[in-house]
Design brief:
Helix content: 55-70%
Distance between the termini: 14 Å
CATH superfamily: dinb family like domain
Structural class: mainly alpha
Shape: globular
Number of strands: 4
Strand order of the largest sheet: 1-4
Number of domains: 1
CATH architecture: Up-down Bundle
CATH class: Mainly Alpha
Length: about 180
């Protein structure tokens, strides 16, 4: 029998009635970020770095690194046009370094979580200043342009997909499952 990874009464996520489009995006994004954090909670470096099935490099630690890179790409590079800094967790010789470099080392774990949290803080600061009316503003991306709201929905979708991966990875580690 599997164990729930959190009791319903201890769930820190919110499921309210957000008012407005931006508030709705914020609630979903915040909840998915918390889901990933909860899935990683209480695990050591070896468990976080444990790969799913060969030849895949998928691991919880890799997901955290990937999500830090994704937050940086969409919030810093695309939405704010800050393309001068190098991409996080990318190497020219290994485009999947976010996952490939997720080795079970406490220093790598510490760096990954600190980087992810820092990227979330920068994204939240930008979101706090975003006016609801600016959700339709077009930003250049991928050789075209996208509305800011479309980028935010994509980020939420990215978290949702990876929360499913995290659920399966965590269950393989210690039998804990999601609600």
């Amino acid at each position: 029998m599997s164990k729930l990874w959190t009791a319903p009464e201890g769930d820190p996520r919110t499921f309210g009635q957000p008012v407005g489009e931006k508030a709705t995006y914020r609630e979903y994004l915040g909840n998915y970020r918390l889901t990933i954090e909860m899935k990683c909670g209480g695990l050591d470096a070896e468990q976080l770095g444990r790969r799913s099935v060969p030849p895949s490099t998928l691991s919880l630690l890799g997901l955290v690194r990937h999500l830090a890179q994704m937050e940086n790409h969409w919030f810093q590079r695309v939405l704010q046009g800050r393309t001068d800094a190098p991409c996080l967790y990318k190497h020219e010789d290994d485009p999947d370094w976010d996952f490939g470099g997720a080795v079970p080392d406490p220093a790598v774990v510490k760096d990954a979580f600190a980087t992810w949290k820092a990227e979330i803080a920068k994204a939240d600061e930008w979101l706090d200043a975003l006016e609801e009316a600016d959700l339709g503003r077009e930003v250049p991306a991928d050789g075209g342009s996208h509305a800011t709201r479309d980028v935010l929905v994509h980020v939420i979708e990215e978290y949702a997909r990876h929360a499913g991966h995290a659920d399966l990875l965590r269950e393989c580690i210690d039998g804990r499952t999601g609600l």
